[in-house]
Amino acid sequence: MDWNRWYSAKSYLRSSLWTVPLIAVAIYAVVKPLTEMLGRWMIRQAILDPKTGFLGLSMTGARSLLGDIVSADLAFLVFTFASLLVAIQVAGGQYTPRIIATTLLRDNIIRSISGLFVFTMLFADRTQSWMGENEVHQLQVFLAALFGFASVVAFLFLIDYAAKSLRPVSLVARVGKHGTAVIESVYPAPTRGAINVPERDNERGAPDRIVRHGGKSGIVLAVNLERLVAKARRTDSVIEFVPQVGDFVAVDEPLFYLYGNSGAIDESRLRTLVAFGTERTMEQDPMFAFRILVDIALKALSAAINDPTTAVLAIDQVHRLLRVVGKRSLHIEEIVDRSGRVRAILRTPNWEDFVHISFREIRQYGAGSIQIARRLRAAIENLIQSLPEHRHEALRVELALLDRAIVSTHPFPEDLALARIPDSQGLGGSAGSTAND
Q1: Does any domain span residue 369?
Q2: In what side-by-side order are the strands of the sheet with 274-277?
Q3: Is residue 389 very low, low, confident or very high in pLDDT (cuts 50, 70, 90)?
Q4: How far apart are CA 384 and CA 391, in angstroms?
Q5: Distance CA 380, CA 376 (A)
Q6: What residues have CB less than 8 Å from 387, skipping those under 6 apart?
Q7: What's the predicted TM-score (pTM) here?
Q8: Is residue 31 one of the residues assigned to a domain?
Q9: Does the residue 401 lie in any domain?
Q10: Which residue segment(s) compose the domain that 116 sits in?
């Protein structure tokens, strides 16, 4: 299988709910025959020595217990998926639709518990149908009862877990956690200060060959950089990936610029090093985590929802991600091989891109809220204090724009003075004034 097909399939399976229950069916197909073999052995031993009966259940009691387990697990499955559909609708409408595939559908706890329900239901149903008129397979009944008890505990845990995980603070925290991991993988090196990046067009001139996108139109999910560099090294060429991860690429748009010995590169094999999909993912797209958080903040600031406190929670995570990005070296567009020669060029977002997506839209929609203005100022001032000097200019621009925005939206001097105070809670933290004794 080509790398891009394998990556797309892996990304699809990671965001699909049916995969873990399907694995549970496969586990059941392996476990059940083994337990039946062991159960037959125990029955033979019980014939020789009746005292070795495992549970001592009667046929009526065993069938009743197994029937209750099957009914309970079926009800658990129906409730779980029905609740999940409701949760998806609520999350998509109140937060952002982009959080569904990246967070809710990739929740391994929900998928694993669903797999437990499927496994237990199949195991109990098979045990009930396998028992004869006079034989009670004590081991299978015991295991079914054990799995049934685990299902009840898991169901109660799932209710509590789902209720907590759908809270705004939990959703934005998970997006922030995933975003931090992506940033650290895409930008592994710490920043070394301001770097003057030469213009590549002046360096290399026009490309010797252009490879265009020949498949279906889609969004770039990931690029296999290791194989890209290896291919460029083998052919003694330089390969530039034209779009950026997360970009939409239509058919016949430029996909690669080739420099040097471009005739030795197979276009079809080169295209297999790029994975496309219908929706952005976080694996190689550090900007997508910012996009999700900002969308949550914008939805919370809309007139229909009007929930600036949720927007503050999103800004908390944006602030956290910006601090991580600001301490990383973002100039990794030119990838070199072991000999130090440039072999691949991959565009990635720069510091200004991250700052713009973090503050511009939220400021435009939320500057009229004192809570948002104070939280934005606290974030910007904290970043100026904690990040290296070469990161400050873009932040000072945002601070100046924030000042101009709150002047235009707060006509009363008292509100204007309050909006200019940085507050990490938005409104309710330290106001910088001295209380009267």
Answers
A1: yes
A2: 248-249, 218-223, 274-277
A3: very high
A4: 8
A5: 6
A6: 323, 326, 327, 395
A7: 0.84
A8: yes
A9: yes
A10: 15-166
